[in-house]
Amino acid sequence: MGLLRRCLHILLCTALFAGSTALSVLAVANLPGHEWLLRGALLWQDPVAAAAVTWPVPQQKPAPQATSAPEPVTATEEASAAVQEPQGTATPAPAAIPEPTATPLPSAAPDIENSGSIRAEQFGQGSGEGYITLNAGSIRNYTSCSDADLRSAVSTPSLPFDVEVDSDEPQVLILHTHATETYQTWPNLIYDPDFTARTQNTALNMCAVGEKMTQVLNDAGINTLHDTTLHDSPSYTESYDRSYATTQAYLEKYPSIKVVLDVHRDAIEDSDGTRVKPLCTINGEDTAQVMIIAGCDNGSSIRLPNWRLNLRFAAAWEEAMESRTPGLTRPVMCAYRYYNQDLTTGSLLIEIGGHANTVTEAIRAGQYAAEALAVLLGGHLD
Fold first, then answer.
1. Half-sphere exposure of residue 161, counting CA atoms within 13 Å on the CB side?
2. How many CB atoms lie within 10 A of CB 269?
3. Residue 92 pLDDT
4. CATH number of 116-376: 3.60.120.10, 3.30.420.10, 3.40.630.40, 3.90.1440.10?
């Protein structure tokens, strides 16, 4: 190629001295990068011929091809994913992905190979030995304390604390020791055995239920804080230690807090692997049932010196829920459980539905539970 170009340069020089238009045109066709020189030569030799020449257009390099970006993860894919390890640096979501809604609508179940079965059951209240019957609702005694002892503990009608309505200071704290617990996203009575029923998506896990409860209480004039820390991620172990530290920090910063609610969901299964969804119907809509858990001091490993006061609060809330929305609750569980309930006399754990309920059913239950609590605490509902 270099030899050819040198020959063409010689041809160009010969054309210039010989005055040959034909030779100049031949050089033009093969040396497009020098057309400025050739144009001048032709104009000098023969202006008319120069005007008639069609000059070659220089070729351009093709534009680089765009590299296709990986498909963004959709909200549905995020919703059906197991808990993921947190990344060192947060990556903003693509602009094309909308923010998840607080109450995502259930969708149809996908095709699932070897799917498991779900059955719905409305759990009733108990009576007789092992139960303390309330004006509405009941308490199940899982302790060695006598039923009379528990009945005496809840006989006082007043709450063990005072809540100030319409206060500028927080009165209630809602948090989640097991925040990544989640629900079904479809109403079909099947589940995916490969799904761990946990997610970091706060629109689908316990944070969504807690957010609805917080909204109801604040609207009713009960100043409520909602902590959305994922205490069980990345490690499930010691999650109660982490939520204990979180609660302590809030109580130190806001000594006005009287009530601390740890909001969870249950997991109920039959021996054959069938998942059970505790379900009731309120105002014609499917709603998850709820269950309060109040711990009891066992005199050794579980130290809850004020457990009777927490149980009194549990009984009052149980009565309020069952009075307003009959069928919403399962009996209160009083058992040898700790659950950080030594921090206030208004510390309780509440299970909102189970892993077989839908997100919508659970959020609806959280709303009714919070409405009853707002009335109990003296708030005002529209």
1. 26
2. 14
3. 30
4. 3.40.630.40
Residues 268-324 pLDDT 10s: 999 999 999 999 999 999 999 999 999 999 999 999 999 999 999 999 999 999 999
Q: Domain ranges in the chain?
A: 2-52, 116-376
Q: Which long-range contacts (CB under 8 A, 24 or more apart) does 215-218 make?
A: 215/370, 216/367, 216/370, 216/371, 216/374, 217/172, 217/370, 217/373, 217/374, 217/377, 217/379
**Any idea how long the chain is?**
382
State the helix-helix crossing angle for 206-219 and 359-376, rounded to 10 degrees: 30
CB 209 within 8 A of CB 248: no
- Asked if residues 347 and 341 have their Cβ atoms less than 8 Å apart, the reply is yes
Structure tokens at 190: 């099947």
**Encoded tokens for 135:** 């004006």
Under 8 Å between Cβ of 329 and 318: yes
Report the candidate in 181, 182, 162 with the shortest Cα–Cα distance to residue 172: 162
